[in-house]
Design brief:
- The chain has 66 residues and is an all-beta fold.
- The chain is 0% helix and 44% strand.
- It has no helices and six strands.
- Strands 2, 3, 4 and 6 form a four-stranded antiparallel β-sheet that branches.
- It is globular.
- The mean pLDDT is 92.
């Protein structure tokens, strides 16, 4: 089963800093590219948070493996 979801805002010029992704069984793997830092270390778990929080850094790209 494929499930699609939109995240973020449209037309509000608000940057995203992080995204939380989870799966009901198994693991999700991912890593984030963050403003002024670059690619962060990969993460793997049933629920992961990609990006940074409380650092005011833009989430620029993500890679996700299911």
């Amino acid at each position: 089963m494929i499930s699609l979801m939109a995240v973020g805002t449209v037309g509000q010029a608000r940057p995203m800093e992080a995204i939380m992704i989870g799966v009901s069984s198994g693991a999700v793997k991912g890593r984030a590219h963050v403003q002024n830092i670059g690619w962060l270390a990969p993460q793997s778990d049933a629920i992961i948070t990609l990006g940074t929080t409380r650092e005011t850094r833009n989430l620029e790209a993500i890679r996700i493996w299911l």
